[in-house]
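REVIEWER CHECKLIST
Item 1: Sequence provided? yes
Item 2: Single chain? yes
Item 3: Sequence as submitted:
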Amino acid sequence: MFQGNLGLCGAHRTGKTTLAIAISNRLSIPFVRTTTSQVFADLGLDPAESMDFKTRLFVQNHVLDAAEQVWQNSSSPFISDRTPIDMIAYTLGDIQGKTEVDNALLTQYIDRCFASTNQFFQNLGIIQPGIPLVYEEGKAALNAAYIEHINILVIGLCRDRRLHAQVFCNDRDEIALDVRVSKIINEFS
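Item 4: Structure as written out by the authors:
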């Protein structure tokens, strides 16, 4: 069994939730689910609607607040299918060439996410794209280029010196669930 909490990070539609549940079952540790959709609903916002950068950061801080509360109330060790690293990546992924960005607010948010990651996660598994993309009602868009963009951001963020967790990155060609489970368990044991 690995020491500390394990967070799976990466783009949407890479199988993080399925993998987290499988690891949870194999190791008999709690799977801690976080949700962004409830935060958007509580704020009366639609995640599919475009929003300005300050509104986006306002929402992202609420998403992080909700996740931290769930992680704080969990017994350790646990596994989660989302980390603050993902939250940074999606925030950065929304910035386009003409996006008006308050750099001080962005830096503050990124620093908060790194601090939160270091507080709650000792181990991170980067789950790269590779599994077949299948449309499911209510799931995130199947835009392979955007998924790859987020993947590259996550990989870069996990190399940042502000991060103190042990990091493992799965191989893209290893898509069988049992292989993914075994690789992660072996890496962190």
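Item 5: Key structural point noted by reviewer: The radius of gyration is 16 Å.
Item 6: Recommendation: ____
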